[in-house]
């Protein structure tokens, strides 16, 4: 039997830990069992019970306090993640060998660890070696849609993450319950972005700003449009229907439940 994993990634403050806590509560209410693993060595607090916490192995503050290493926050975080990659036996023991496990992995908010470094790709290969079917869950705070340039930049980061990890990915637009009413009306256009986003009525895309940057932005938008690479699902941890829709999408990506035996009952005619 395979095992299943959600690799939850996204910029700092996008709601990764909150999402995991809410997903575990939703699963429990649905009579399903999920587990969580914290991979953020700089995490201060999270609202879920983790079966493994990287801070038990290495903490970013301990790395920063090491005078011989002389790392700042970002360097210490990279060092801590590399240390984990070199000590995966520790995590293997924590994960155990139970079949049909469903594990949610909470990752650091420094998105460059996912989009630019090879650490998370190596980690994903490690999970696959343990028979995990992995789905990347990319979270984006809905506040980004208030500024089209920020939103467009986030699309590019999401696309780079998809290319770098080479795994099925579900994009989520989080905290939609906090959106102003006027932004909720335009939510449908944001959830399925297209090249129409790059228009002259957006200040960040006006030709008179910089013709070369305009053409570059247009080219990126056309790639997203042509290959249908992006679609966002709205989510609020307060809305059980949205949580269920998201879980169904992720389950489809990793084919959860398809290996379960079908119970056949005899029917008297």
UniProtKB/TrEMBL annotation:
Tell me which InterPro entries the record gives. Answer: Gpn (IPR004130), Gpn3 (IPR030228), P-loop_NTPase (IPR027417)
Q: Does the keyword Nucleotide-binding apply?
A: yes
Q: Which Pfam families match?
A: ATP_bind_1 (PF03029)
Keyword annotations for this protein, in alphabetical order, are: GTP-binding, Hydrolase, Nucleotide-binding
* GO MF entries: GTP binding; GTPase activity
Record-stated family:
Belongs to the GPN-loop GTPase family.
Assembly description = Binds to RNA polymerase II (RNAPII).
Q: What does this protein do?
A: Small GTPase required for proper localization of RNA polymerase II (RNAPII). May act at an RNAP assembly step prior to nuclear import.
This chain belongs to which protein, by name?
A: GPN-loop GTPase 3
Name the species this protein comes from. Dermatophagoides pteronyssinus
Q: Which gene encodes it?
A: LOC113794928
């Amino acid at each position: 039997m395979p095992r299943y994993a959600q690799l939850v990634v996204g910029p700092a403050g996008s709601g990764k830990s909150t999402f995991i806590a809410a997903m575990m509560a939703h699963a429990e209410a649905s009579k399903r069992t999920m587990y969580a693993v914290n991979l953020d060595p700089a995490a201060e607090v999270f609202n879920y019970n983790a079966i493994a916490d990287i801070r038990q192995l290495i903490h970013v503050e301990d790395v920063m306090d090491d005078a011989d290493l002389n790392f700042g926050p970002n360097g210490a975080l990279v060092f801590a993640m590399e240390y984990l990659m070199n000590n995966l036996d520790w995590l293997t023991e924590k994960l155990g060998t139970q079949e049909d496990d469903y594990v949610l992995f909470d990752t650091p908010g420094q998105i460059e660890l996912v989009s630019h470094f090879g650490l998370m790709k190596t980690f994903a290969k490690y999970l696959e070696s343990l028979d995990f079917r992995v789905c990347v869950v990319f979270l984006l705070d809905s506040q980004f849609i208030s500024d089209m340039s920020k939103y467009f930049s986030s699309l590019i980061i999401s696309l780079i993450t998809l290319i770098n990890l080479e795994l099925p990915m579900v994009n989520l637009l989080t905290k939609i319950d906090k959106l102003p009413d006027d932004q909720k009306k335009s939510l449908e256009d944001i959830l399925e972005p297209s090249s129409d986003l790059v228009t002259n009525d957006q200040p960040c895309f006006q030709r008179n700003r910089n013709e070369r940057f305009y053409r570059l932005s247009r080219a990126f938008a056309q790639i997203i449009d042509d290959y249908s690479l992006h679609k966002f699902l709205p989510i609020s941890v307060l809305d059980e229907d949205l949580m269920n829709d998201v879980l169904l999408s992720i389950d489809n990506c990793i084919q959860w439940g398809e290996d379960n035996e079908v119970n056949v009952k005899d029917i008297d005619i």
